[in-house]
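Troubleshooting log. The previous structure file for this entry was overwritten by mistake, so regenerating from the original sequence record. Sequence copied from the archived sheet and checked twice against the printout by T.R.
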Amino acid sequence: MVRELNRAEGASDASSAPMEQLVEERIREFLRRLGPALDSETRLHDLFVRKVERPLVKVVLEATAGNQIRAAAILGIHRNTLRKKVAELGLAPKARRRKGS
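Regenerated output below.
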């Protein structure tokens, strides 16, 4: 997985800029929008970690068809940590109703 990510990072195709570059551009855009309010921001790191963590966990869970053990392995975290994050991030799957219930 890391090798594939590294290959994607170095892609020469203009439509697939390196991930770091894409993230940097989005951060610059966000900070520009904050404008003067940036000076009063004191928890920017925490904000970005939260904003990146939710879609990361969501996409990995989708890629593993909801298999939390596989998702945790891909993310490099313990499955109980993933379960806690899934609940905290509001990503818990909806309970399915049985037919006839």
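Residues 87 and 94 are 11 Å apart (CA to CA). Archived copy saved in two places this time.
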